């Protein structure tokens, strides 16, 4: 049953017992797979079309599907006041919702070379990187080292701590979004270091994937986010 239909039916019958504001908020919970801003083969030879297609159509789609499913279940069990199930659903919401959030950022973090992928950051973000890390090269070395050292699956991030206006490198496990490491953290760049992001092409050599991905990094996107947060 579509989430909107479920909410409408329950709202009409008064079954949810929730305020109209809460119900309106829940109606926005149906998420969908965003289109890639480029073709599947546009990042070759750095990332193959086969990986991009599988990663987007299968992996990301699965996170979206399971996120929506968990949210529908949540509304249903909230209606019943089923506290154990409400608590049990939190891990599915975190994992699949995180997967959806992270991948939605990741696609925008990348760009074909002909569209500026790999061009170094300019303006205020470029200056902030030099201030915080010494140079862009030092930042890349740090992110690659932390990404390579991450055990199991996860992400390595360049983030902004907007409370202290400082840049940081952080890793998260599984599909945890950066915000799980601090409410003030805003992701500027995230690199997916799950095996599904590189194994078909780079096999078990994760450091080669990390070294290559900078050739299609979309610093323009990171700069726009940074300038919005730090005008
Ligand atoms: Fe992924």
Automatic annotation (TrEMBL):
Mn(2+) binds at residues 55, 103, 192, 196. One of its GO terms (molecular function) is manganese ion binding. Its cofactor is Mn(2+). Residues 31-111 form the Manganese/iron superoxide dismutase N-terminal domain. Keywords: Manganese, Metal-binding, Mitochondrion, Oxidoreductase. The keyword Metal-binding applies. It catalyses: 2 superoxide + 2 H(+) = H2O2 + O2. This is Superoxide dismutase. It comes from Rhododendron simsii (Sims's rhododendron). The lineage of its organism: Eukaryota, Viridiplantae, Streptophyta, Embryophyta, Tracheophyta.
């Amino acid at each position: 049953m579509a989430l909107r239909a479920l909410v409408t039916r329950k709202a009409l019958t008064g079954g949810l017992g929730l305020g109209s504001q809460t119900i309106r908020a829940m109606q926005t919970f149906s998420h969908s797979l965003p289109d890639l801003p480029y073709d599947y083969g546009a990042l070759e030879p750095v990332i193959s079309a086969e990986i991009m297609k599988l990663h987007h159509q299968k992996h990301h789609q699965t996170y979206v599907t399971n996120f929506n499913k968990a949210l529908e279940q949540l509304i249903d069990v909230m209606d019943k006041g089923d506290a154990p199930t409400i608590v049990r659903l939190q891990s599915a919401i975190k994992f699949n919702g995180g997967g959806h959030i992270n991948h939605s950022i990741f696609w925008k973090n990348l760009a074909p070379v002909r569209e500026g992928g790999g061009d170094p950051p300019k303006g205020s973000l470029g200056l902030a990187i030099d201030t915080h890390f010494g140079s862009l090269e030092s930042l890349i070395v740090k992110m690659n080292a932390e990404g390579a050292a991450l055990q199991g699956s996860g992400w390595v991030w360049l983030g902004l701590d907007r409370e202290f206006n400082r840049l940081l490198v952080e890793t998260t496990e599984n599909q945890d979004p950066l915000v799980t490491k601090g409410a003030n953290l805003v992701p500027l760049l995230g690199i997916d270091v799950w095996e599904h992001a590189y194994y078909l092409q780079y096999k078990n050599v994760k450091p080669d994937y990390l070294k290559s991905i900078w050739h299609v990094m979309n610093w323009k996107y990171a700069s726009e986010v940074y300038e919005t947060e730090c005008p």
